[in-house]
Amino acid sequence: MKTPTPRLAAALACTLLFAFYPLSAQLDTDAAPKSPPITASFAADYRYSSYLPPEEAGDRWRSAQSASFEARARAGNLFSFSARVETDGKPGSFDPDAAIETLSLAFSPSPACTLTAGKQNLQWGTARAFSSITRLAPPVDPLEPEGSSRSVTGVRADLIPAWWLSLTGVALPGSVPGSPADETTGALRAELLVLDTDVAVGLISQIGAGGDRETAVIGDAARFFAFFGLYGEGQYVIDGASDTQITGGLRLDIPAWLDSTIVTSAEYQWLPENTDSEHRVFLDISGIPLSRDLRAGISALAAPDASLIVFRGTVRWNVNQNLDAALSGRYQCYTKDAPAPVWWGASRAEISASVSAAF
């Protein structure tokens, strides 16, 4: 047997060293705890409006302005933070409860479980304009969903036990607008995928200080195909004040020029207990391409039995990936005694301009 030469021994030692060094480094890396990467994003929005108030308030145009700031942060897939504040800039008019639209912290111990606490937006249901699940969160202005908030304060838990099933539970300690301050709201919702259709059912329970309970059954469904979809949702009160609401809608995605898609939505809402405005309809056409960077949209909503109709048109300019500008006009026709919902706006006419930036 030959004895290895010093040169061969050195080469063998170097080979073993280079072979085992990456493995040892990997073992050290795996043993050391890793800090989750932290990412953050910010957005700001400014809006100026000139509007004509209701007839009883005169015929002089007035102006208003507002600004909003939004911040989001995420630590890996474990924690996420969200905050949004809006102010009109008037001295002495800052109300923290109204100005803070969202302020929440979410914890995800696993991809199938998320716990969120704080003031947050609840997006239950499928309606684009007329939400029928009003026992849980306030309705929004259908013509300005991006400027409206369905935020409530409480705790939310989301669980996904299977790919076809998701469960959500919400506890709101007296935070639903319009409910008494000493009232507690709880809700459970299960969403299933059945034959390519999203179906959800749930219960909303409100308990007053005296132990009075009101329970509502909610449900929604949506089925989307290549270019169109059907959706609907409803709410029925089992025990308590009647508040039945049903919404049905249709969405069409129409291929257009400049490699764009025009999205058309139509909705109908039926409120059998609302004698002032039992029927409501909504039509929205968005994404109309005017150029590569310009998009237009038109919307209309009406309550035929209340003699009320509202129109809105918008032109949006996508300056670049992080900057948008928009110009919109709005006109409202109604009889003098029409009981217009407060979230439809009280002004007869309005022109507004806005700028949005993301960082």
Which helices and strands appear, and what pairs or packs with what?
Layout: H1 6-31, E1 38-52, E2 62-75, E3 79-87, H2 96-99, E4 100-110, E5 113-121, E6 151-162, E7 165-172, E8 184-194, E9 197-207, E10 213-224, E11 228-239, E12 245-256, E13 260-270, E14 279-289, E15 294-303, E16 308-320, E17 323-334, E18 349-358
Antiparallel strand pairs: 1-2, 1-18, 2-3, 3-4, 4-5, 5-6, 6-7, 7-8, 8-9, 9-10, 10-11, 11-12, 12-13, 13-14, 14-15, 15-16, 16-17, 17-18
List keywords for this structure.
359 residues; mainly beta; Porin; 2 helices; 57% strand; globular; disordered N terminus
Structure description:
- The protein has 359 residues and is mostly beta strands.
- It has a single domain, classed as Porin (Beta Barrel).
- It is built from 2 helices and 18 strands.
- The protein has an 18-stranded antiparallel β-barrel.
- Residues 1-32 have low confidence and may be disordered.
The total number of structural domains is 1
Portion of residues in helices? under 10%
What ranges have pLDDT less than 50 throughout 5 or more consecutive residues? 1-32
CATH class: Mainly Beta
State mean pLDDT (0 to 100 scale): 83
Shape: globular
Straight-line N-to-C gap = 71 Å
Would you kindly provide a brief summary of this structure?
The protein has an 18-stranded antiparallel barrel. It contains two helices and 18 strands. The protein has helices at 6-31, 96-99, and strands at 38-52, 62-75, 79-87, 100-110, 113-121, 151-162, 165-172, 184-194, 197-207, 213-224, 228-239, 245-256, 260-270, 279-289, 294-303, 308-320, 323-334, 349-358.
